[in-house]
């Protein structure tokens, strides 16, 4: 046990001095597991996790029940691993609280962290005031890919509750392809017209995929969705 204690202390000191950038992936996982598994060789467990799931991100995104199937992983340590991406999201959200969104780039950077570790498709609705200040941002729909439906009435209620003057939709494609689907286009069209009835302007629909995003408003092919008098395309 003393040998393991010495190794743990060396790895912790290395992190303090160097950060994680120079760590091998299995060492990153090994270090994290120190705080969930106090009396076992977490190096071996880290290797087993990576062999089972293939990558650090896949380990952290794996369901708790699947993590528990790996030798050495208890419910406690499985929950701990699943907590990491959720904690990252909350960290970034907290840093972005109170921000103003005045450009496509700012909108994309605001939304990207909200999808960290999410394997099911979710839709966010961002309510803004006249100066682009964030009034509210929340998940309005979630489900598996291609099965997400938006409750338009809920979006109208949120807009009125926070006295929004504009809004942005955002969702992600877990498959890594940011190109919009027909359902994405139809949703944008439907939401834009519903919000118009309460004097709220839908200014964009952001689609995030991995570490990239596209803006429908900035895409020449879909800009018509946000124009004042768009014409329905065939």
TrEMBL record:
Record-annotated MPN domain positions: 100-222
PROSITE patterns, alphabetically?
MPN (PS50249)
For this protein, the record's Pfam families field holds:
RadC
User: Which keywords fit this entry according to its UniProt record?
Assistant: Hydrolase, Metal-binding, Metalloprotease, Protease, Zinc
Query: Which residue spans traverse the membrane?
Result: none
Metal-binding in keyword set: yes
Q: Which InterPro entries match?
A: MPN, RadC_JAB, RuvA_2-like, UPF0758
Give the record's family classification.
Answer: Belongs to the UPF0758 family.
Q: What is this protein called?
A: DNA repair protein RadC
Q: Which organism is it from?
A: Solibaculum intestinale
Q: According to the entry, what is the taxonomic lineage of the organism? A: Bacteria, Bacillati, Bacillota, Clostridia, Eubacteriales
């Amino acid at each position: 046990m003393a040998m393991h204690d010495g190794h743990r202390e060396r790895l912790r000191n290395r992190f303090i001095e160097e950060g994680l950038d120079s760590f091998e992936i299995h060492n990153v996982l090994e270090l994290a597991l120190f705080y969930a598994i106090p009396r076992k060789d977490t190096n071996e467990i880290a290797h087993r996790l990576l062999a089972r799931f293939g990558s650090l991100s896949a380990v952290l995104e794996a369901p708790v029940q699947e993590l528990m199937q790996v030798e050495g992983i208890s419910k406690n340590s499985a929950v701990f691993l699943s907590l990491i991406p959720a904690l990252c999201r909350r960290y970034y959200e907290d840093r972005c609280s109170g921000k103003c969104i005045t450009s496509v780039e700012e909108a994309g950077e605001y939304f990207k962290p909200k999808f960290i570790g999410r394997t099911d498709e979710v839709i966010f609705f961002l309510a803004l005031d006249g100066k682009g200040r964030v009034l509210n941002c929340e998940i309005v729909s979630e489900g598996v890919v291609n099965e997400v439906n938006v409750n338009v009435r809920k979006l109208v209620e949120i807009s009125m509750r926070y006295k929004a003057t504009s809004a942005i939709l955002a969702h992600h494609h877990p498959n890594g392809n940011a190109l919009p689907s027909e359902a994405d286009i139809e949703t944008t069209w439907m939401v834009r017209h519903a919000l118009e009835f309460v004097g709220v302007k839908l200014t964009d629909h952001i689609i995030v995929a991995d570490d990239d995003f596209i803006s429908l408003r900035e895409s020449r092919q879909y800009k018509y969705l946000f124009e004042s008098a768009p014409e329905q395309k065939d």
